[in-house]
Write a structure and sequence with these properties.
The chain is of the alpha+beta class. Strands 28-48-47-46-29-40-45-44-41-42-43 form an 11-stranded mixed beta sheet, with helices on both faces. The protein has an 8-stranded antiparallel beta sheet with strand order 30-39-38-37-36-35-34-33, sandwiched between helices. Strands 19-18-20-26-21-24 form a 6-stranded antiparallel beta sheet, with no helix packed on it. Helix 10 crosses helix 18 (about 660-685) and helix 38 runs antiparallel to helix 39. It is elongated. It starts with a helix and ends in an 11-residue tail after the last helix.
Length: about 1400
Amino acid sequence: MRFSTILCGLSTVFLGVAAIPLFEVVNDYDRYGNKCPLFAHYNVACPIICVTDHNLCPTKLAATCPTGLSFCNDGTCQESCEGIANACQCGDPTAPTNYIPCAAGQLVNITHFDPTNQVIQTQNTCKANANTTLTPGVWGTTNSSSVWLSCPVIEPSFTWTEPMWLAVWILMGIEAAILIVWHIYKTLREAKFNRALSSNLRVNNEPIMVNDGALDSDCKIDEKQFNDEKKSAIDTTTEDGESLKESEKLRFRGFKNDVLGYIGFGSVVVTTLLCFVFLGCLVGDYYGVLNGVELGVFLSGDLSSKIFCAVWHLTAAWFCVMMLTKKTIRNYYRIESYPHKCPYIQVERKQDELIFLDDGSKWIAKLRDLEKRVTSYLGMNILVSTCSVHHTKNNLRYFEYQCMRYIYNPEKACFEPYEFDLGSTNKKLQAWSGGITSDDAKTRLSLLGPNIIKVDVPTIPLAIVQEFASFLYLYQMMCMWVWYYFQYYKMGLVQTCIILLAAFIRVILRLRAEYRIKAMAEHKTEVNLLRDGKWQEKVSSGDLVPGDIFEVEENTIVPCDAVILSGTVVVNESSLTGEAMPIRKFAIACDDNTYEMNGSSKVNTLFAGTIISQATPAISNGDNNTGRVFALVLRTGIATEKGMLIHKILFPSPVSFIFNEHLKLAICILLLWGGIAFALSLYLMGRGNITSWYYGVFIMSEIFSPLLPAAFTINQSVCAARLRGKNILCIDLPRINLSGKVRIFCFDKTGTLTREGLEFYGGVAAPQFAIAPFGHREEDPLKMESKLAMGIATCHAVTKVKDQFIGNPVDIESFNAMKWELNTPEHSDYLDTLIAPSEVPGQKGKVAHVIRRFEFVHARASQSVAVLDPETQHVHVYLKGSFERIKHLSNSDSLPVDYDQQAAKYAQEGCYVLALSHRDLGVLGQDIQMEEIKSMSRDALENDCNFAGFILFRNMLKHDTTDAISELKGGDTRVVMITGDTALTGIYIARQCGMIEPQQQVILGDLVSGAMVWRDVESGIEVDVDRIIDMDPRETHEKHIELALTGRAFEYLVSTDMIRNYLLMTRVFARMTPNDKVTCVQLHMEKGVTAMCGDGGNDCGALRAAHVGLALSEAEASIVSPFSTSNRSIMQCVELLKQGRSALATSFSNYKFLILYGESMAFWELIMFYFTAIAPQPIWITIDGFITTTMTFAITQAKPAAKLGPSRPTAKPLGIYTLASLVGVIFINFWFLCCSVVWLFQQDWFVCNEFDSSAIDSAQWWLLGDNYEVEVISLVVVFQFFNSGAIVNFGSQFRQSWWRNYILVFIWTCFFISTSYLTLADPNPYSCIFRINCGTPSTLVELGYPEPTWYIEDYNSPLGHNVLPVWFRWQLWGYILANCACNIIWERICILWIARDWAIRRKKTNPSKSRVLFKL
């Protein structure tokens, strides 16, 4: 057989040309043009001879039997012939009855069997063997005395009127009738409503309400509209708050039940179940499960296959419809009407998707545009939820959507959430100190709902149903049904188990996360409540409503957002912020200052979910509230800070990684190629007969493996487990892969880059005159200037709880350093009493009493106290804060001329610099009265202060910060500092940890008198920043210039839209508020994947906003970011990136492996289909059951590299690297596979021993592998399969070296040894299982091998064996190793070495225009 003929024949299969599977007559001529010899066929059954008289039978076939037996009409001898029909009638009662059979069971050996003339050759051989001159005619003729029995094949069939089919038609007819009748009925019932809705009119004076923002944007609620019977003096109004704005984005549609609708929906459920039942019956009947006989119900394999194919398609179509309508189908079987009248509300909301790492690919953009149009057309971009409508005790209609209660407003015809405004000033809030009445509380409770953040966690069955309700699982399920049916149920069960395992992992992780949130959200406790002017004991916190007064008790969890009206509280807010340091909070004053919950009044506010460590009552005033700390409820349930945080976690904005976008296109390409392979299979395996359809589905399911999504899930789960081992908790698995693409890492400074606490470094007293120089730094409190010492010791909010100081860490550090004592107040007018250390041991030191205190707030960057000196009776005011803020607040005459220079000097030395101002109010009782002090506003108290000195703290780096920053920069990650500290301190720390290199010039930008001013940090000279940047001849990402910005400068640049010009040049962002941090992170997110690391204090917003947030929090229940750790080392950031890069690289490895698996499988199957041959089942089981599953798992066991590499893994499944790697390996494998067939046809021992499938039923696929063709290509492809798992494990840049993946190396070695043994060994029990190098026992003996002692089923081929010559086995083994070596060379040398180095050099010299280069 010629090389060109074979190559052309194979090429036509893969190039899409109309191929002829049998490209020439099988076994016609050898390689030298000689006609091939015909092989012998042994024990060939002869047809029965039918004669008109038994006397005409040949002697050898005479109708005689041994004594005791009778000759029957089937040509056999039996004890009784009762019930045995005449075989010569072929079961046809209308056939001629004049023929009777001669003896049956004649076997002959045909020495030169000719498959093209087998009928005539068999008849002639049988005639000769019977030694007769009789010449039988053809069956069906009646004028011959004898004929060869050749009964026509009558395929069993259905009349389709059998009871079983009548039941099917009736059920289908009933379902169709129900659907039609319901649609007509529904249309008629809704006609009036739809006409009214379309004309936007009011029908019967009743409003049509859809809550479309265009109609109802001005909808407001007033309490009087809900309860006209009640006349309330309570000042309650509704704010146009965030929840109201959110409600305007919703569309509400009302539905009500109908009896016919119940029937219709029930029929859909029943039909869905019957689809499964029908498929199950077909599969069961195929294996004889239904009645104990294979195909006992559906008659024949061909008929059963056609029925299965039809039912399969109908089921797939039915389930597609179910998937598309899963959110709305229940309401389709309800009647739509006015929402305010209906028991069910369908809430619709448009969902937009955020794309991460959009690389500007035109193909991706086109696919996304197509997807957007398709989803919009099908309504899949609308989030739909159905909520049940309930009634309050006041008969108000409401429903709950995403934990928010929506109340129906009949006046405005809309559903909206209700909100209360209790007042905007401290005085208005204090006016509620008497509480509310029970009637008012009931009214508010009905409007707002219970004070519970209700988290609906689905049951396990419902969660499983929700998980499987996707098109991906539909694809997997329908593929598995074909596997079950077509004699491949074993592997179908294996893959089903893997798919179920991955699905259950997702379900378990989802439920675990939601139960964790539920435990945090649905907290109930008992509180003491002031209602109707009386304290009620042990009332459920679920009954709290805005306006309630409750007692704040120690060691309890705050049940709502509240403002303290009386007393002092120490609270731990770690559950919300991650900051474990307790905070001291105070009652609001009774003044006209504006109450700002998240601003200046945060120190007066208790937030839901926080823990009360200490509660100190105010001094007795003789009223009913004596001895109690109490607070006013402001917000409850989902409206609280905790509720909004949980809402963001439960209902996050959708995110997409560019990996997901590329994967969609990759799946489309795979399905397209699968469709082509499907069409080829239909042609090659029977030119369109039903059996070829099954082969087509098989090949499609191999090209796009159902295991691909499961592999990603398992990989992320393995990585999450590794992270847990490193003490990093992940609550969002997809973020693991995203962390592998982080390009920018933002850090808080204090507590993150530096140690937890600051070390007191001393005080520097102000000079006596403005022009005089500063004194020296003093750490000893006894030697320090007395006024400065008293200010440091008293100006703070430190308190003591069980012998532990509580408060700001800086205040605690400075107070400890001053060695003063903190005692309980000596009088009700005093907040604290403090005693100074004595210079003389044993004597009592100086006493000071704090009589007024204003807490530190970020908005003011300062705090102040009024202190009474009992020795002189003078009242001193101390004002402490940042040196910039104190300069602004102090008398300008008191500021030394070198104030800024001195502060900058200490900041450059790495000091945390605070400043202190002082004011003497005079003698108490003479110059000022206690009542005046108590009633003074903060601004009045802090006015007219004189600068007193600097307070210094040292900010020490953590021991591993420098190493971590160095490794991040070495890993091509830009590091940025976003701190609330001063710019100079931040710059010093940035230099110390390596963010800023020693040789780099630092320019600080600040806002001075409304204008941007840039100064060189070293010289202090004002410079033109743009000119300095332009003067540096280097590329932007290589310039030796670093910028730093103050908070004021940052806000100015943001407001003028200039920040993006300097963003990637700025290393330190200083004096940043929490909102500034969020804005800064979001700006960086525009440039690339951004991570944020903070200690949780003021970083919560930034941690939530970043692509990847890592909270250094010891609070295990903290949910401020996707990742959290109790190990406060910055090395955790490095570890997260290493694990993320490893996970992303491993995800791509599994992706590539399964693509290579699918392509190798497709080519292998198509070549087998070309020869109408199929590999034995053990080979399929080895590939699908062992190689694919174990390799997929083993690939996930690759551990991350020891250090971050200088680049990140690709995130593009269709990127140039991924495509080059895949296409190269696929190309190599394809040609090695094809050339193995061509090589085989060059062998003299093979030619004329080719597999002839013309007489074989292709549906019996397990009998089509006993030949050389299947054996050779199977050995080649098995090596390709497990070798693909090895080559995708290369790449030690992001993962440890391939040989460090011990599990994969072990599995690869096992497969290599096993398959090599199959290739090289003589016939043995192991190879005979796979029907490789084996044969029929008698044939093996003829070949000179020992007679097998193990069972071997006879070979289904004339040759009787497929034992390769020994020399050819070794050559084939070498050929296969060359295949493996070529793949390894391509992947390891060509792609990961030559091409990668070239790509890196090219990127450096010709960077992509769409890629922004960062300064590291």
